[in-house]
Design a protein that fits this description.
Layout (H helix, E strand, L loop, with lengths): L4 E6 L9 H9 L11 E5 L6 H12 L2 E7 L6 E4 L1 E3 L23 E3 L4 H10 L4 E4 L6 H10 L10 E6 L17 H16 L2
Parallel strand pairs: 1-2, 1-3, 3-8, 4-7
Antiparallel strand pairs: 4-8, 5-6
């Protein structure tokens, strides 16, 4: 049997006590969608020292492609991240209170090999807000993505993509977020994205 798609989300972290990615991921199990409901679902701790390793462990042994999701208070759409970097934020602690030590090493950059333009076109054709970003930030989200793109998803490796999502309407996060999107639209969008990732 072919290995399934891996989809990851994050647990709460400072400033985000109820992570919408966890809500979204948990909803897939109840959906009538043969891709999203049967994918391997992994919720990662928002920790620099744990999340990348947990993702790689699941990816290396239980998946043939990966979609990683994260919440961004700047997102106004399904935001497809085109690249990752080795940069970190030494002044923003993770859920365990840890901050990476500053480094003088050159910043490494890795790009996803997926055709994000086609994905955005497919999403917008269905009436969904979507955009491409070339900055995944420097928090744990970026670290997880960098672990994928510099490892199993590098070059001609397996497909990998990070998607930042907005807040869910009616939640406390929505009061300060740049944008919101309904759970239904997020589910629909992730179904489109998942099928296009698998097709690569």
């Amino acid at each position: 049997m072919a290995k399934p798609l891996l989809i990851t989300a994050f647990e709460p972290f400072p400033g985000v006590p109820d992570n919408p990615t966890e809500t979204l991921l948990r909803s897939f199990a109840q959906m009538d969608d043969d891709v999203l409901s049967t994918a391997r679902h992994v919720i990662l701790p928002t920790r620099y020292d744990v999340a990348p390793a947990r993702m790689l462990e699941a990816l290396n042994f239980e998946a043939s492609a990966v979609i990683m999701t994260g919440y961004s208070n700047r997102a106004t759409a399904l935001t497809l991240e085109s690249r990752s970097t080795s940069a970190s934020l030494p002044d923003r602690p993770d859920s365990a209170g840890y901050c990476p030590l500053p480094s003088d090493a050159p910043i490494a950059v890795h790009d996803t090999r997926l055709d994000l333009g086609s994905m955005v076109a497919a999403l917008t054709a269905e009436g969904l807000d979507a955009e491409i970003s070339d900055d995944a930030g420097s928090y744990v989200c970026n670290h997880v993505y960098h672990a994928a793109l510099s490892g199993p998803c590098h070059s001609d490796g397996i497909p990998g993509l990070f998607v930042h999502i907005p807040a869910l309407p009616g939640t406390p996060l929505a009061e300060t977020a740049a944008g919101t999107m309904s759970l239904k639209d997020m589910q629909k969008g992730m179904g489109i994205i998942a099928r296009m990732v698998i097709a690569n």
